[in-house]
Amino acid sequence: MEMNWIPIKFREPTEEEKAEGIAGPVLTCDLPDDEQDILITLNGKVYIETIYTDTDPGSGYNLYYTDSGVELMDCTAWMPLPEPYRAESEEE
Predict the structure, then answer these.
(1) Average pLDDT over residues 13-32
(2) CA 37, 51, 86: angle at the middle one, nearest 5?
(3) What Rg value do the Cα atoms of the chain yield, rounded?
(4) Confidence label for 60 from pLDDT (cuts 50, 70 and 90)
(5) How confident is the model at residue 25 (pLDDT cuts 50, 70, 90)?
(6) Collapsing DSSP states into helix, strand and coil, what is residue 26?
(7) Could you tell me the CA-to-CA distances from 25 to 2, 17, 38, 73 in Å, in that order?
(8) SS3 for 83?
(9) Can you spell out the DSSP letters for 38-80?
């Protein structure tokens, strides 16, 4: 399984989205699943975090944040955790 960083990308909301109450940037990159353990890069460092999604009741906009409170929007990139190491003798 090839592991690559997924850059955090976003765009400004369209006029239609603004009319629906979305005021902030809209994430346009692949996103992790709710409660997925991931690696994030933030301020030049790498962290293991669990991602959570929540819906803003005012706008219906999905929010993505980590168990330490960091918003995914503030990160540089993310990637799924690699599979744990297994010795060849464990694979049989």
Answers:
(1) 86
(2) 5
(3) 16
(4) low
(5) confident
(6) strand
(7) 29, 10, 22, 9
(8) coil
(9) EEEEETTEEEEEEEEEEE-TTT--EEEEETTS-BGGGSSEEEE
